[in-house]
């Protein structure tokens, strides 16, 4: 089965992770612009970060046969540094039209401050101007109210819910998000966000319509095989295969494909120029091997002595 | 013939290949960008081009490629694609109209370019006016880890041959080998071979041998004309590499080019190889996938 991981901070991950993801069936990832674990203090470092996710990271993923897309935005934490935030807003239009940019994101609230609100709204307007989908990061704390507020603000700005992906949902937020017509994404992230057994229960209850699964893997203890493992667990527990395909592949493609920057042909039948430059082709699509989820863990083992 | 002729050619190829609607869109964008003095229109135009035009190969005919080389010596757009060509047209026209101010604009564009844009910015070099800023930026581009970006400078591009000093040239050739690229598409490879480079390449071959790694046969192409003394021992080693016929052929050509009179004695063991080289049956070509011809 082919998978898309629509939220993965690959800039923080190793080549082992790329290998394991490709082997598990991941054909495409979306890398949202985010907080790198500590605050950036100058706009120039923000610029270089955005350059890296539209540039080197896209190239790096291509070497493993994975297509890399990204979203561009000012995250909620750094919105609280007004001087930085103003300067970042100035440069965002320079990046939002790069190849493979599928949305403005991840944007939204962290502590729900006034400044966070200001720049969230400004970026919704930018998305509207450039006709791009939006990826919303819902807050870790005070999640339920933060999620509701995020959608209220989107509607105040006349945004179309079918172009907005609300991410990091849980059992408490999913119903309202779906009822209001948004895409509901779930991050399978150990300890803090969502476990995959809980995810399977949600699929059993809500079905697959407008739901998608991602790993949100980053610099923390997280799981780049979150999508593949959830798919396998869901099938084992009796969820219909077609439903699994929707939440682990098709829905992400439909939602972010609205940008015009992400098409199935990108990995199934890429133009020759891509194969000469940014994409080396997926071993699974080339009829390589069966998905092997556990392989990476075996490789990183001190008993495996030879380095050549 | 001049850069202006080359730009007109590029425009005419696009005209032939673009549907009318896309053609007029591109013209409008170019006009708008040329009229405006802000960088913003240029960023937006370059950003929109691949969203509006196809990424299919430009697929130029032999006649069109010959015309390219005639208009601008060394200009080789054989692997360009439609959107990339349109971006380069925009750049070339902006460079024409901005004059000396373009150098800084170019650096600024490179600073925030995505992978394809970087490739196109460097592939555009033969159609852009030379400047200190471009030269600096190309140095930056050569330091990239992204092979395709490196190759957009090194391969099918007359810029290195025309402008690089010996140190930059030599490091470009060596880096091509380091990143598993090829030498054949480098313009001026034979003409700019030099003694220093031959020494660097032989050292590199020794490093590879010491690590039990293969040595690409292309390396010997830049060694032959400067193969003296111990460099001939290296060629002899390559000549006796029974696992790799390409290596033996390459070494034979290089030995035949050696300025040292007794070098040919090395070929005594391999009369057939020596004859084939002498008769011009084995020689270096410019084909990336098999740079050796006739073997």
Brief write-up:
Chain A has helices at residues 15-24, 43-54, 56-63, 82-96, 114-130, 143-156, 174-179, 196-206, 226-236, 241-256, 265-268, 272-277, 295-299; strands at 3-5, 26-32, 67-72, 101-108, 134-137, 164-167, 183-187, 211-214. Chain A has 308 residues and is an alpha/beta fold.
Account of the protein in words:
The complex is a heterodimer of chains A (308) and B (295). Chain A has helices spanning 15-24, 43-54, 56-63, 82-96, 114-130, 143-156, 174-179, 196-206, 226-236, 241-256, 265-268, 272-277, 295-299; strands at residues 3-5, 26-32, 67-72, 101-108, 134-137, 164-167, 183-187, 211-214. Chain A is of the alpha/beta class and 308 residues long. Chain A has a single domain (3-283), classed as TIM Barrel, CATH 3.20.20. In chain A, strands 1-2-3-4-5-6-7-8 form an eight-stranded parallel β-sheet. In chain A, helix 2 (43-54) packs parallel to helix 4, helix 4 (82-96) runs parallel beside helix 5 and helix 9 (226-236) packs antiparallel against helix 10. Chain A is globular, with a radius of gyration of 19 Å. Chain B is an all-alpha fold. Chain B folds into two domains: 3-163, no CATH class; 195-293, no CATH class. Chain B is 60% helix and 1% strand. Chain B has 15 helices and two strands. Chain B has helices spanning 3-17, 20-35, 39-52, 62-71, 82-98, 102-111, 115-123, 132-142, 147-154, 158-163, 166-178, 195-210, 230-239, 245-257, 271-278; strands spanning 283-284, 292-293. Chain B starts with a helix and ends with a strand. Chains A and B meet through helix 2, helix 3, helix 4 and helix 12 of A and helix 3 and helix 7 of B.
């Amino acid at each position: 089965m082919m998978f898309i991981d629509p939220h993965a901070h690959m800039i923080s991950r190793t080549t082992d992770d790329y290998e394991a993801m490709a082997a598990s069936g991941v054909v495409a990832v979306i890398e949202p612009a985010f907080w790198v674990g500590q605050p950036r203090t100058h706009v120039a470092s923000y610029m270089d970060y955005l350059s890296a996710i539209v540039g080197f990271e896209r190239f790096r993923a291509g070497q493993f046969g994975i297509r890399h897309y990204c979203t561009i935005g000012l995250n909620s934490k750094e919105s609280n540094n007004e001087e930085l935030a103003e300067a970042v807003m100035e440069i965002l239009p320079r990046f939002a039209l790069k190849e493979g940019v599928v949305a403005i994101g991840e944007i939204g609230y962290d502590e729900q401050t006034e400044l966070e609100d200001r720049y969230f709204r400004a970026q919704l307007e930018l998305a509207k101007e450039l006709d791009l989908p939006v990826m919303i990061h819902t807050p870790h704390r005070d999640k339920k109210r933060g999620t509701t507020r995020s959608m209220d603000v989107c509607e105040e700005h006349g945004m179309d819910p079918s172009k907005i992906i609300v991410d990091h949902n849980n059992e408490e937020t999913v119903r309202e998000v779906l009822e209001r017509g948004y895409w509901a994404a779930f991050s399978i992230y150990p300890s803090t966000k969502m476990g995959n057994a809980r995810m399977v229960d949600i699929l059993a209850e809500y079905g697959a319509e407008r739901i998608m699964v991602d790993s949100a893997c980053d610099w923390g203890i997280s799981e780049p095989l979150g999508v593949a493992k959830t798919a396998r667990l869901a099938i084992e527990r009796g969820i219909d295969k077609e439903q699994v395909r929707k939440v682990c592949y098709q829905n992400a493609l439909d939602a972010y494909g609205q940008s015009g920057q992400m098409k199935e042909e990108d990995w199934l039948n890429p133009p020759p120029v891509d194969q000469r430059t940014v994409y080396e082709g997926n071993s699974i699509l080339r009829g390589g091997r069966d998905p092997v989820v556990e392989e990476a863990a075996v490789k990183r083992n001190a008993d495996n002595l030879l380095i050549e | 013939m001049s850069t202006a002729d080359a730009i007109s050619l590029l425009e005419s190829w696009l005209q032939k290949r673009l549907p009318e609607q896309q053609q007029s869109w591109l013209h409008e964008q170019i006009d708008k960008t040329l009229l405006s003095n802000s960088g913003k229109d240029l960023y937006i135009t370059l950003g929109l081009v691949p969203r509006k035009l196809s990424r299919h190969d430009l697929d130029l005919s032999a006649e069109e490629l010959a015309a390219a080389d005639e208009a601008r010596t060394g200009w080789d757009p054989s692997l360009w694609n439609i959107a990339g060509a349109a971006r380069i047209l925009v750049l070339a026209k902006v460079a024409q109209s901005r004059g000396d101010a373009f150098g800084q604009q170019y650096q600024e564009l490179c600073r925030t370019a995505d992978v394809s844009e970087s490739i196109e910015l460097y592939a555009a070099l033969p159609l852009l006016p030379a400047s200190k800023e471009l030269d600096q930026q190309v140095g930056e581009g050569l330091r990239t880890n992204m092979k395709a970006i490196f190759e957009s400078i090194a391969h099918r591009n007359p810029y290195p041959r025309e402008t690089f000093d010996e140190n930059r040239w030599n490091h470009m050739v060596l880096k091509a080998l380091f990143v598993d690229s090829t030498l054949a598409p480098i313009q001026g490879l034979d003409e700019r071979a030099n003694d220093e480079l031959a020494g660097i390449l032989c050292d590199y071959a020794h490093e590879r041998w010491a690590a039990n790694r293969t040595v690409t046969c292309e390396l010997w192409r830049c060694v032959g004309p400067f193969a003296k003394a111990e460099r001939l021992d290296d060629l002899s080693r390559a000549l006796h590499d029974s696992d790799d016929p390409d290596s033996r052929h390459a070494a034979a050509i290089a030995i035949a080019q050696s300025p040292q009179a007794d070098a040919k004695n090395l070929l005594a063991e391999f009369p057939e190889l020596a004859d084939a080289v002498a008769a011009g049956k084995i020689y270096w070509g410019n084909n990336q996938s098999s740079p050796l011809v006739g073997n």
